[in-house]
Amino acid sequence: MRSVVAVTERVVETPSTVTLRFSYPATADPGQFVMLWLPGDDELPMSLSYSDGPSKGVTIKAIGGTTRRAQSIRSGDRVGIRGPYGNHLDTAPKRILVVAGGSGSAALAPAAERARAAGGSVTVALGATQAPELLFKERFRAMGARVEVATDDGSEGTKGFVTVVAERLLATEPFDAVWTCGPEVMMKKVIVAAEGRSVPVFCSMERHMKCALGMCDACALGPYHVCVDGPVFPAQRLANVHDFGSFHRDSSGRRVPL
Amino acid sequence: MAELAVRCAGVNLRNPFLLASGVWGESGESLAGAWNAGAGGVITKSIGSVPRPGYPNPTIETYEHWGLLNAMGLPNPGIDEYPREIEIARKAGATVIGSVFAGDPEEFARLAVRMATTGVVALELNLSCPHAQGFGTEVGGTPADVEKVVRAVTRAVTIPVIAKITPNTGDPAGLALAAERGGAAAVSAINTLRAIAIDVRLRRPVLSHGLGGLSGPAIKPVGLACVWQIFEKVSIPVIGVGGISNAQDALEYVMAGARALEVGTQVTFDGVGVFGRLAQDLSHLLDELGFARVEDAVGVAHGAHSVPPD
């Protein structure tokens, strides 16, 4: 069930993110993820940040030991891939607002490309700590999306959180769907900003994962398992999930504050 | 509709289908989900004295729909934190059985005492995990060890104690007999079969731990044989587990001697809705075969050998 593939390209996207490209023929829908195996090390759930026929890619943010080592993989190195897993984003809506923070663009960019190819309009509220960390800003522009930027330090665009940009856009323009991925506090604010505007919000969630098959319970999120019930959740499914925005689970299954 | 309620190990179950330990069961919401989907009871993840992260990934390999290989490494939040998860499941009305693992009889007894205070209706002792150093099969691989652990626990708690035994020895029935001598109220059989997967391109085992345990339809005939042999040796109830994916599998286990059943891998393949389907289908199958109650079918295949037993 795993394929072993050679990495064909390594791209430094921002100071903290690296993309690995490879060929993996399985058909994937936008928003799905794969399990990336670093032989002898660990295996990580990674959103497909590129999915164009067999040409696939994952974009890795350095957050711990394994992700750091994954970033140091070079072209020609072999990795294991299984998947794709999980549900996906519906790219049919005509006017889409993407709200991405940190490395959240990785999960949403292929869906935005699909929506653009289908003739939809895409507006991106893109946030990062500082200008060089804005992930896929040029890629979004190249696909014909409008990009509105926020940075924590004000080095580009609005100074402050990207949710401020999202709130302004939602208050002043009509959208048919909102897709968001990033810190859960951010996604919660996006949901609040969309309340009463009759626009559905879809959150791409992340949890510690082991089996990715709905067996081990590592990615339990309220009554759901992110691996099979997600990673995409309509906001109303998260409304009564106490852990959303508050807790995740570590490798032992203990609930720990986000 | 045939009656599915059973009494096993002193516990009343609304139907014989229990969520097997290790599947879902790390969170209370998941246990509640299995109960709400129709499970007759839910068995927790095996809980230890301290939080344990388990092995690095890969922890799993799948084989279409005939099997699943895992070496999770007994990840669990530890007995200090886990009672809150049981509480969530109990608030949903679930019949909860607490699974524990430990490295020696004394630790088993201490842990059992704490688990027994959480409101679980029974304990299941993990004497059979095939891939955790110092635990599971390593403390439950011989009849003497099984008897020691079970006796230590049954002396320490008043709720029923179920011993889950390993198929990875020459004599599972001997282990079951030892559990009975130690005071177990029931035995569950089987845990996973020790197994391994190799990646030929990388020339290495797939699982980070190397060895793991095989579950799913592939192991059903093996589990059935263990239940068959155990039923002929012991007088305590047997809980059948291993590759149950449909009502016929379930009834095969019952006719081999199982009074209750555990379902794990099929939850992975079909989702938790498998519990409602199994209960409904088993009831229909019992009707079709003329059984008024599932309990009437327990062990009926024994004594029907075409060749005299040796």
Describe what this molecule looks like in 3D.
- The complex is a heterodimer of chains A (258) and B (310).
- Chain A is α/β, with parallel strands linked by helices and 258 residues long.
- Chain A folds into 2 domains: 3-85, Translation factors (Elongation Factor Tu (Ef-tu), domain 3), CATH 2.40.30; 95-257, Rossmann fold, CATH 3.40.50.80.
- Chain A has 7 helices and 18 strands.
- Chain A is globular.
- Chain B is 34% helix and 19% strand.
- Chain B is globular.
- The chains are: A alpha/beta (258), B alpha/beta (310).
- Chain A binds chain B through residues 1-2, 4, 35, 37, 39-44, 78, 80, 210-218, 220, 222-223, 225, 228, 249-255, and chain B through 22-27, 29-30, 32-33, 45, 51-54, 56-63, 68, 70, 72, 75-78, 81, 199, 201-202, 204, 206, 208, 264-265, 267-268, 271.
Question: Can you lay out the helices and strands and say which pair or pack?
Answer:
The complex is a heterodimer of chains A (258) and B (310).
Chain A: E1 3-6, E2 9-14, E3 17-23, E4 33-38, E5 42-52, E6 55-61, H1 65-71, E7 78-85, E8 95-101, H2 105-117, E9 121-128, H3 137-142, E10 146-151, E11 158-159, H4 162-172, E12 177-181, H5 184-194, E13 201-204, E14 220-221, E15 224-225, H6 226-229, E16 232-234, H7 235-238, E17 247-249, E18 255-257
Parallel strand pairs in A: 8-9, 8-12, 9-10, 10-11, 12-13
Antiparallel strand pairs in A: 1-7, 2-3, 3-6, 4-5, 4-7, 5-6, 13-16, 14-15, 17-18
Chain B: E1 6-8, E2 11-13, E3 17-19, H1 28-36, E4 41-43, E5 60-63, E6 67-70, H2 83-91, E7 96-100, H3 105-116, E8 122-126, H4 137-140, H5 143-156, E9 161-164, H6 172-181, E10 186-189, E11 193-195, E12 198-199, E13 204-205, E14 212-215, H7 220-233, E15 238-241, H8 247-256, E16 258-263, H9 265-270, H10 274-289
Parallel strand pairs in B: 3-4, 3-16, 4-7, 7-8, 8-9, 9-10, 10-15, 15-16
Antiparallel strand pairs in B: 1-2, 5-6, 6-14, 11-14, 12-13
